[in-house]
Amino acid sequence: MDHSENPYWELFNSQLENQYRTGSTSYQERRQKLNALQDALVHTYRDKIRDALYADFKKPFLETDLTEIYQVSGEINLAIKKLRTWMRPFSVPTPLALLGTSSSYLYEPKGVCLILSPWNFPVNLTFGPLVSAIAAGNTAVIKPSERTPNTAAVMAEIVSALFPREEVALVEGRAEVAQELLKLPFNHIFFTGSTKVGKLVMKSAAENLTSVTLELGGKSPTIVDNTANLKTAAKKIVWGKFLNSGQICVSPDYILVHEDSMEELIYQMQRYIRSFYNNDASTSGSYSAIVDTDHHRRLVDHLEDARSKGARIEYGGTYKEELKYLEPTLVSRVPENASLLGEEIFGPILPILGYRNIQEAIDYVNAGEKPLALYIYSKKNTTIKQVLHQTRAGSTAINTNVLQYTNPYLPFGGSNNSGIGKSHGFYGFQEFSNQRSVIRQHTISGLELLFPPYTAFKQKLAN
After folding, report:
1. How far is CA 49 from the centre of its chain?
2. Are 148 and 119 in contact (CB under 8 A)?
3. Whose C-alpha in 62, 90, 168, 242 is 20 to 30 A from the C-alpha of 267?
4. How many Cβ atoms sit within 10 Å of the Cβ of residue 406?
5. Is 113 known to be catalytic?
6. Which position among 215, 314, 327, 431 bears the catalytic label?
7. Does the pTM of the predicted model rise above 0.85?
Protein backbone atom coordinates (compact mmCIF):
# COMPACT_ATOMS: atom_id res chain seq x y z
CA MET A 1 0.00 0.00 0.00
CA ASP A 2 1.30 3.45 -0.94
CA HIS A 3 1.35 5.71 2.12
CA SER A 4 3.36 8.52 0.54
CA GLU A 5 0.33 10.86 0.42
CA ASN A 6 -0.23 10.53 4.16
CA PRO A 7 0.76 13.82 5.89
CA TYR A 8 2.70 11.87 8.52
CA TRP A 9 4.50 9.48 6.19
CA GLU A 10 7.78 11.41 6.30
CA LEU A 11 7.82 11.31 10.11
CA PHE A 12 6.85 7.64 10.18
CA ASN A 13 9.44 6.75 7.55
CA SER A 14 12.22 8.52 9.47
CA GLN A 15 11.43 6.37 12.51
CA LEU A 16 11.14 3.28 10.32
CA GLU A 17 14.65 3.87 9.01
CA ASN A 18 15.93 4.55 12.52
CA GLN A 19 14.24 1.61 14.32
CA TYR A 20 17.20 -0.79 14.18
CA ARG A 21 19.68 1.77 15.48
CA THR A 22 17.33 2.63 18.34
CA GLY A 23 16.57 -1.05 18.93
CA SER A 24 20.29 -1.83 19.25
CA THR A 25 20.84 0.66 22.07
CA SER A 26 22.43 -0.65 25.24
CA TYR A 27 21.01 -0.70 28.74
CA GLN A 28 23.15 2.37 29.57
CA GLU A 29 21.78 4.34 26.61
CA ARG A 30 18.17 3.55 27.44
CA ARG A 31 18.76 4.35 31.10
CA GLN A 32 20.19 7.72 30.07
CA LYS A 33 17.01 8.54 28.12
CA LEU A 34 14.82 7.53 31.05
CA ASN A 35 16.86 9.61 33.47
CA ALA A 36 16.49 12.62 31.18
CA LEU A 37 12.72 12.16 31.09
CA GLN A 38 12.66 11.75 34.87
CA ASP A 39 14.57 15.00 35.38
CA ALA A 40 12.30 16.86 32.96
CA LEU A 41 9.11 15.75 34.69
CA VAL A 42 10.18 16.04 38.31
CA HIS A 43 12.32 19.17 38.04
CA THR A 44 12.60 21.20 34.82
CA TYR A 45 8.96 21.12 33.69
CA ARG A 46 7.12 20.31 36.90
CA ASP A 47 5.69 23.81 37.41
CA LYS A 48 4.70 24.09 33.74
CA ILE A 49 2.90 20.76 33.94
CA ARG A 50 1.03 21.83 37.08
CA ASP A 51 -0.01 25.15 35.52
CA ALA A 52 -1.09 23.49 32.26
CA LEU A 53 -3.30 20.92 33.98
CA TYR A 54 -4.86 23.62 36.14
CA ALA A 55 -5.56 25.67 33.01
CA ASP A 56 -7.08 22.66 31.24
CA PHE A 57 -9.44 21.50 33.99
CA LYS A 58 -8.53 23.03 37.33
CA LYS A 59 -6.53 20.03 38.48
CA PRO A 60 -5.09 20.69 41.98
CA PHE A 61 -1.28 20.85 42.13
CA LEU A 62 -0.99 18.10 44.74
CA GLU A 63 -3.21 15.84 42.65
CA THR A 64 -1.00 16.54 39.62
CA ASP A 65 2.07 15.57 41.62
CA LEU A 66 0.57 12.34 42.96
CA THR A 67 -1.37 11.07 39.96
CA GLU A 68 0.64 12.42 37.04
CA ILE A 69 4.29 13.23 37.78
CA TYR A 70 5.14 10.82 40.61
CA GLN A 71 3.27 7.96 38.93
CA VAL A 72 5.49 8.24 35.84
CA SER A 73 8.53 8.78 38.05
CA GLY A 74 7.78 5.47 39.77
CA GLU A 75 7.58 3.72 36.39
CA ILE A 76 10.95 5.18 35.42
CA ASN A 77 12.57 4.16 38.72
CA LEU A 78 11.40 0.57 38.32
CA ALA A 79 12.49 0.40 34.67
CA ILE A 80 15.97 1.68 35.50
CA LYS A 81 16.26 -0.77 38.40
CA LYS A 82 15.14 -3.84 36.42
CA LEU A 83 15.96 -3.05 32.77
CA ARG A 84 19.30 -4.87 32.67
CA THR A 85 17.51 -8.06 33.76
CA TRP A 86 14.61 -7.55 31.35
CA MET A 87 17.00 -7.14 28.40
CA ARG A 88 19.07 -10.28 28.98
CA PRO A 89 18.27 -13.64 27.33
CA PHE A 90 16.17 -16.03 29.44
CA SER A 91 17.22 -19.69 29.34
CA VAL A 92 14.56 -22.40 29.22
CA PRO A 93 14.81 -26.21 29.43
CA THR A 94 15.39 -28.29 26.30
CA PRO A 95 13.60 -31.69 25.89
CA LEU A 96 15.58 -34.92 25.66
CA ALA A 97 14.77 -35.30 21.97
CA LEU A 98 16.77 -32.11 21.32
CA LEU A 99 19.82 -33.26 23.29
CA GLY A 100 22.85 -31.29 22.13
CA THR A 101 21.03 -27.97 21.91
CA SER A 102 20.27 -25.11 24.28
CA SER A 103 17.14 -22.93 24.26
CA SER A 104 16.42 -19.36 25.29
CA TYR A 105 14.32 -16.36 24.44
CA LEU A 106 14.94 -12.63 24.45
CA TYR A 107 12.81 -9.51 24.28
CA GLU A 108 13.40 -7.54 21.09
CA PRO A 109 11.75 -4.19 20.28
CA LYS A 110 8.61 -4.30 18.16
CA GLY A 111 9.82 -1.29 16.15
CA VAL A 112 7.86 1.86 15.36
CA CYS A 113 5.06 2.42 17.89
CA LEU A 114 2.07 4.74 18.10
CA ILE A 115 0.86 5.99 21.49
CA LEU A 116 -2.64 7.50 21.50
CA SER A 117 -3.23 9.03 24.93
CA PRO A 118 -6.36 10.46 26.62
CA TRP A 119 -7.18 13.71 28.39
CA ASN A 120 -8.06 12.57 31.92
CA PHE A 121 -4.45 11.92 33.04
CA PRO A 122 -2.62 13.31 30.03
CA VAL A 123 0.93 13.26 31.44
CA ASN A 124 0.64 9.91 33.20
CA LEU A 125 -1.07 8.13 30.31
CA THR A 126 1.28 9.59 27.70
CA PHE A 127 4.65 9.26 29.36
CA GLY A 128 3.84 6.04 31.23
CA PRO A 129 3.56 4.01 27.99
CA LEU A 130 6.51 5.98 26.57
CA VAL A 131 8.68 4.75 29.45
CA SER A 132 7.85 1.17 28.44
CA ALA A 133 8.45 1.90 24.75
CA ILE A 134 11.86 3.44 25.46
CA ALA A 135 12.84 0.66 27.86
CA ALA A 136 12.00 -1.91 25.17
CA GLY A 137 14.08 -0.05 22.55
CA ASN A 138 11.34 1.28 20.26
CA THR A 139 10.79 4.51 18.40
CA ALA A 140 7.46 6.22 19.09
CA VAL A 141 4.98 8.69 17.66
CA ILE A 142 2.70 10.22 20.31
CA LYS A 143 -0.73 11.75 19.71
CA PRO A 144 -2.20 13.24 22.92
CA SER A 145 -5.81 14.34 23.32
CA GLU A 146 -6.86 17.72 21.94
CA ARG A 147 -9.16 18.19 24.96
CA THR A 148 -6.19 19.22 27.15
CA PRO A 149 -4.32 21.58 24.79
CA ASN A 150 -2.22 23.34 27.42
CA THR A 151 -0.83 20.07 28.73
CA ALA A 152 -0.29 18.73 25.20
CA ALA A 153 1.79 21.82 24.38
CA VAL A 154 4.02 21.30 27.43
CA MET A 155 4.46 17.61 26.61
CA ALA A 156 5.40 18.55 23.03
CA GLU A 157 8.03 20.91 24.44
CA ILE A 158 9.45 18.15 26.65
CA VAL A 159 9.59 15.59 23.84
CA SER A 160 11.25 17.96 21.37
CA ALA A 161 13.84 18.97 23.99
CA LEU A 162 14.77 15.38 24.89
CA PHE A 163 14.48 13.33 21.70
CA PRO A 164 15.21 13.61 17.97
CA ARG A 165 12.02 13.25 15.89
CA GLU A 166 13.25 10.05 14.27
CA GLU A 167 13.22 8.52 17.75
CA VAL A 168 10.28 10.08 19.62
CA ALA A 169 7.88 12.67 18.21
CA LEU A 170 4.68 14.22 19.55
CA VAL A 171 1.98 15.30 17.09
CA GLU A 172 -0.77 17.67 18.22
CA GLY A 173 -4.19 18.10 16.64
CA ARG A 174 -7.78 16.94 16.59
CA ALA A 175 -9.20 13.46 16.02
CA GLU A 176 -8.47 13.67 12.29
CA VAL A 177 -4.74 13.55 13.08
CA ALA A 178 -5.17 10.25 14.91
CA GLN A 179 -7.19 8.91 12.00
CA GLU A 180 -4.37 9.66 9.56
CA LEU A 181 -1.76 8.15 11.87
CA LEU A 182 -3.82 4.97 12.23
CA LYS A 183 -3.55 4.38 8.47
CA LEU A 184 0.22 3.91 8.76
CA PRO A 185 1.76 0.43 9.29
CA PHE A 186 3.01 0.84 12.85
CA ASN A 187 4.47 -2.21 14.56
CA HIS A 188 2.44 -1.60 17.73
CA ILE A 189 -0.32 0.74 18.86
CA PHE A 190 -0.92 1.63 22.51
CA PHE A 191 -4.32 3.27 22.95
CA THR A 192 -5.99 4.54 26.13
CA GLY A 193 -9.57 5.73 25.90
CA SER A 194 -13.15 4.66 25.45
CA THR A 195 -14.32 1.24 24.35
CA LYS A 196 -16.10 2.79 21.37
CA VAL A 197 -12.93 4.40 20.02
CA GLY A 198 -10.87 1.35 21.00
CA LYS A 199 -12.89 -0.73 18.55
CA LEU A 200 -12.06 1.73 15.76
CA VAL A 201 -8.37 1.62 16.68
CA MET A 202 -8.37 -2.18 16.57
CA LYS A 203 -10.17 -2.17 13.24
CA SER A 204 -7.56 0.17 11.75
CA ALA A 205 -4.73 -1.87 13.24
CA ALA A 206 -6.11 -5.01 11.61
CA GLU A 207 -5.50 -3.49 8.16
CA ASN A 208 -1.75 -3.67 8.82
CA LEU A 209 -1.80 -6.65 11.22
CA THR A 210 -0.50 -4.28 13.89
CA SER A 211 -0.51 -5.53 17.47
CA VAL A 212 -2.44 -3.41 19.97
CA THR A 213 -2.63 -2.61 23.63
CA LEU A 214 -6.06 -1.20 24.46
CA GLU A 215 -6.62 0.35 27.87
CA LEU A 216 -10.35 0.98 27.92
CA GLY A 217 -12.80 1.22 30.80
CA GLY A 218 -16.29 0.11 31.67
CA LYS A 219 -18.59 0.15 34.63
CA SER A 220 -16.35 -0.77 37.56
CA PRO A 221 -18.54 -2.03 40.44
CA THR A 222 -17.95 -1.59 44.16
CA ILE A 223 -19.49 -4.28 46.36
CA VAL A 224 -20.01 -3.42 50.04
CA ASP A 225 -21.34 -6.24 52.22
CA ASN A 226 -22.88 -6.07 55.69
CA THR A 227 -19.60 -6.95 57.45
CA ALA A 228 -17.61 -4.02 55.98
CA ASN A 229 -16.34 -1.15 58.08
CA LEU A 230 -18.73 1.41 56.59
CA LYS A 231 -16.88 4.48 57.81
CA THR A 232 -13.60 3.34 56.24
CA ALA A 233 -15.35 2.13 53.09
CA ALA A 234 -17.15 5.46 52.69
CA LYS A 235 -13.94 7.45 53.11
CA LYS A 236 -12.05 5.43 50.49
CA ILE A 237 -14.95 5.30 48.03
CA VAL A 238 -15.45 9.06 48.20
CA TRP A 239 -11.73 9.61 47.59
CA GLY A 240 -11.56 7.09 44.73
CA LYS A 241 -14.78 8.29 43.08
CA PHE A 242 -14.29 12.04 43.22
CA LEU A 243 -10.53 12.16 42.59
CA ASN A 244 -10.12 14.04 39.29
CA SER A 245 -13.91 14.63 39.51
CA GLY A 246 -14.53 10.98 38.73
CA GLN A 247 -12.76 11.22 35.36
CA ILE A 248 -10.80 8.02 35.97
CA CYS A 249 -11.06 4.71 34.14
CA VAL A 250 -10.72 2.77 37.42
CA SER A 251 -13.08 5.01 39.38
CA PRO A 252 -15.92 3.22 41.24
CA ASP A 253 -18.72 3.50 38.67
CA TYR A 254 -21.54 2.27 40.91
CA ILE A 255 -22.05 0.74 44.36
CA LEU A 256 -23.78 -2.51 45.22
CA VAL A 257 -24.37 -2.37 48.96
CA HIS A 258 -26.22 -4.79 51.24
CA GLU A 259 -29.66 -3.33 51.99
CA ASP A 260 -28.98 -3.43 55.75
CA SER A 261 -25.94 -1.15 55.28
CA MET A 262 -27.19 1.25 52.62
CA GLU A 263 -28.50 4.03 54.84
CA GLU A 264 -25.36 4.15 56.99
CA LEU A 265 -23.01 4.02 53.99
CA ILE A 266 -24.81 6.94 52.35
CA TYR A 267 -24.64 8.93 55.58
CA GLN A 268 -20.91 8.30 55.93
CA MET A 269 -20.23 9.22 52.30
CA GLN A 270 -22.14 12.48 52.73
CA ARG A 271 -19.92 13.27 55.73
CA TYR A 272 -16.70 12.63 53.83
CA ILE A 273 -17.74 14.62 50.77
CA ARG A 274 -18.28 17.65 53.02
CA SER A 275 -15.02 16.94 54.85
CA PHE A 276 -12.97 16.65 51.64
CA TYR A 277 -14.56 19.39 49.52
CA ASN A 278 -16.47 21.73 51.89
CA ASN A 279 -20.18 22.40 51.55
CA ASP A 280 -19.56 23.99 48.14
CA ALA A 281 -17.04 21.95 46.14
CA SER A 282 -16.90 24.65 43.44
CA THR A 283 -14.86 26.76 45.87
CA SER A 284 -12.64 23.88 46.94
CA GLY A 285 -8.97 23.84 45.97
CA SER A 286 -9.10 20.04 46.06
CA TYR A 287 -11.73 19.43 43.39
CA SER A 288 -11.25 19.41 39.61
CA ALA A 289 -13.54 20.75 36.91
CA ILE A 290 -15.01 18.67 34.09
CA VAL A 291 -12.65 18.71 31.12
CA ASP A 292 -14.93 20.54 28.66
CA THR A 293 -18.51 21.59 27.97
CA ASP A 294 -19.26 18.47 25.88
CA HIS A 295 -18.47 16.15 28.76
CA HIS A 296 -20.20 18.46 31.23
CA ARG A 297 -23.39 18.34 29.15
CA ARG A 298 -23.15 14.55 28.83
CA LEU A 299 -22.97 14.19 32.62
CA VAL A 300 -25.80 16.66 33.25
CA ASP A 301 -27.94 14.73 30.78
CA HIS A 302 -27.24 11.50 32.71
CA LEU A 303 -28.22 13.19 35.96
CA GLU A 304 -31.41 14.77 34.60
CA ASP A 305 -32.41 11.47 32.99
CA ALA A 306 -32.10 9.73 36.36
CA ARG A 307 -34.08 12.48 38.11
CA SER A 308 -36.87 12.33 35.56
CA LYS A 309 -37.19 8.58 36.07
CA GLY A 310 -37.56 8.83 39.83
CA ALA A 311 -34.02 8.47 41.14
CA ARG A 312 -33.30 10.08 44.50
CA ILE A 313 -30.43 12.58 44.88
CA GLU A 314 -28.80 11.72 48.22
CA TYR A 315 -26.14 14.41 47.90
CA GLY A 316 -25.21 17.09 45.39
CA GLY A 317 -26.82 17.36 42.01
CA THR A 318 -26.02 21.02 41.35
CA TYR A 319 -23.90 22.15 38.43
CA LYS A 320 -22.53 25.33 36.85
CA GLU A 321 -21.98 25.06 33.12
CA GLU A 322 -19.88 28.22 32.88
CA LEU A 323 -17.39 26.73 35.39
CA LYS A 324 -17.62 23.20 33.93
CA TYR A 325 -18.54 22.24 37.50
CA LEU A 326 -20.63 19.32 38.66
CA GLU A 327 -21.03 18.77 42.38
CA PRO A 328 -20.05 15.39 43.90
CA THR A 329 -23.36 13.56 43.57
CA LEU A 330 -24.80 10.44 45.19
CA VAL A 331 -27.90 8.90 43.59
CA SER A 332 -30.08 6.09 44.96
CA ARG A 333 -33.24 4.35 43.74
CA VAL A 334 -31.88 4.43 40.19
CA PRO A 335 -34.24 2.61 37.79
CA GLU A 336 -32.79 -0.03 35.48
CA ASN A 337 -33.54 2.00 32.36
CA ALA A 338 -31.61 5.07 33.55
CA SER A 339 -28.66 6.01 31.33
CA LEU A 340 -26.45 6.16 34.44
CA LEU A 341 -26.60 2.36 34.57
CA GLY A 342 -26.19 1.84 30.85
CA GLU A 343 -22.76 3.30 30.11
CA GLU A 344 -19.56 4.27 31.90
CA ILE A 345 -20.22 7.49 33.82
CA PHE A 346 -16.68 8.95 33.87
CA GLY A 347 -17.66 11.80 36.14
CA PRO A 348 -18.64 12.70 39.72
CA ILE A 349 -22.01 10.89 39.86
CA LEU A 350 -22.25 7.72 41.94
CA PRO A 351 -25.32 5.46 41.69
CA ILE A 352 -26.02 3.34 44.79
CA LEU A 353 -27.91 0.07 44.39
CA GLY A 354 -29.03 -2.35 47.09
CA TYR A 355 -28.81 -6.13 47.17
CA ARG A 356 -30.15 -8.81 49.53
CA ASN A 357 -27.53 -11.55 49.19
CA ILE A 358 -24.06 -11.69 47.67
CA GLN A 359 -25.09 -13.95 44.80
CA GLU A 360 -27.56 -11.28 43.68
CA ALA A 361 -24.70 -8.75 43.55
CA ILE A 362 -22.45 -11.17 41.65
CA ASP A 363 -25.18 -11.90 39.12
CA TYR A 364 -25.72 -8.17 38.56
CA VAL A 365 -22.00 -7.65 37.86
CA ASN A 366 -21.84 -10.65 35.53
CA ALA A 367 -24.84 -9.48 33.54
CA GLY A 368 -22.67 -6.65 32.16
CA GLU A 369 -19.36 -6.55 30.31
CA LYS A 370 -16.15 -7.41 32.17
CA PRO A 371 -15.11 -4.25 34.04
CA LEU A 372 -11.63 -2.76 34.17
CA ALA A 373 -11.76 -2.86 37.97
CA LEU A 374 -13.91 -4.46 40.67
CA TYR A 375 -13.83 -3.44 44.31
CA ILE A 376 -14.86 -5.43 47.37
CA TYR A 377 -15.40 -4.11 50.90
CA SER A 378 -15.86 -6.95 53.36
CA LYS A 379 -14.38 -8.55 56.48
CA LYS A 380 -15.58 -11.98 55.42
CA ASN A 381 -12.96 -14.02 53.54
CA THR A 382 -15.52 -16.46 52.16
CA THR A 383 -17.41 -13.57 50.55
CA ILE A 384 -14.22 -12.08 49.13
CA LYS A 385 -13.20 -15.43 47.64
CA GLN A 386 -16.67 -16.01 46.24
CA VAL A 387 -16.67 -12.65 44.45
CA LEU A 388 -13.13 -13.18 43.13
CA HIS A 389 -13.89 -16.66 41.83
CA GLN A 390 -17.32 -15.96 40.35
CA THR A 391 -16.64 -12.64 38.60
CA ARG A 392 -14.15 -11.46 35.96
CA ALA A 393 -12.34 -8.11 35.92
CA GLY A 394 -9.10 -6.54 34.78
CA SER A 395 -8.08 -5.81 38.38
CA THR A 396 -9.49 -5.97 41.90
CA ALA A 397 -8.82 -4.12 45.13
CA ILE A 398 -10.09 -5.43 48.47
CA ASN A 399 -11.06 -2.93 51.17
CA THR A 400 -9.64 -0.10 49.08
CA ASN A 401 -9.97 1.23 45.54
CA VAL A 402 -7.87 2.74 42.70
CA LEU A 403 -4.59 1.83 44.44
CA GLN A 404 -4.02 -1.25 42.29
CA TYR A 405 -3.23 1.13 39.41
CA THR A 406 -0.42 2.80 41.34
CA ASN A 407 1.72 -0.33 41.90
CA PRO A 408 4.16 -0.63 38.95
CA TYR A 409 4.91 -4.24 39.92
CA LEU A 410 1.31 -5.25 39.09
CA PRO A 411 0.04 -5.79 35.53
CA PHE A 412 -2.63 -3.25 34.66
CA GLY A 413 -5.25 -3.69 31.96
CA GLY A 414 -8.69 -4.95 31.15
CA SER A 415 -10.32 -7.99 29.64
CA ASN A 416 -12.29 -8.00 26.39
CA ASN A 417 -14.59 -4.97 26.52
CA SER A 418 -12.42 -3.25 29.13
CA GLY A 419 -9.15 -3.75 27.28
CA ILE A 420 -6.53 -5.95 25.66
CA GLY A 421 -2.98 -6.37 26.96
CA LYS A 422 -1.27 -5.11 30.09
CA SER A 423 0.90 -2.17 31.08
CA HIS A 424 3.18 -0.96 33.89
CA GLY A 425 6.64 -2.14 34.84
CA PHE A 426 7.78 -5.40 33.28
CA TYR A 427 4.34 -5.94 31.75
CA GLY A 428 4.59 -2.66 29.82
CA PHE A 429 8.11 -3.57 28.66
CA GLN A 430 6.76 -6.94 27.55
CA GLU A 431 3.86 -5.31 25.69
CA PHE A 432 6.24 -3.24 23.56
CA SER A 433 8.49 -6.24 22.90
CA ASN A 434 8.46 -9.40 20.83
CA GLN A 435 9.50 -12.60 22.62
CA ARG A 436 12.05 -14.05 20.21
CA SER A 437 12.91 -17.70 20.74
CA VAL A 438 16.47 -18.88 20.07
CA ILE A 439 17.74 -22.47 19.84
CA ARG A 440 21.45 -23.23 19.46
CA GLN A 441 22.93 -26.58 18.50
CA HIS A 442 26.25 -27.45 20.15
CA THR A 443 26.76 -31.10 19.21
CA ILE A 444 25.21 -33.66 16.88
CA SER A 445 21.52 -33.92 17.73
CA GLY A 446 19.85 -37.25 18.40
CA LEU A 447 17.05 -36.04 16.14
CA GLU A 448 19.40 -36.36 13.17
CA LEU A 449 19.19 -40.15 13.55
CA LEU A 450 15.58 -39.85 12.37
CA PHE A 451 16.30 -37.91 9.18
CA PRO A 452 15.13 -39.56 5.87
CA PRO A 453 15.17 -42.06 4.42
CA TYR A 454 12.75 -43.54 6.93
CA THR A 455 13.36 -47.19 7.81
CA ALA A 456 11.88 -49.76 10.14
CA PHE A 457 14.85 -49.21 12.48
CA LYS A 458 14.18 -45.47 12.59
CA GLN A 459 10.50 -46.15 13.31
CA LYS A 460 11.60 -48.22 16.31
CA LEU A 461 13.81 -45.36 17.50
CA ALA A 462 10.92 -42.93 17.16
CA ASN A 463 8.61 -45.27 19.07
Report:
1. 20
2. yes
3. 62
4. 15
5. no
6. 215
7. yes
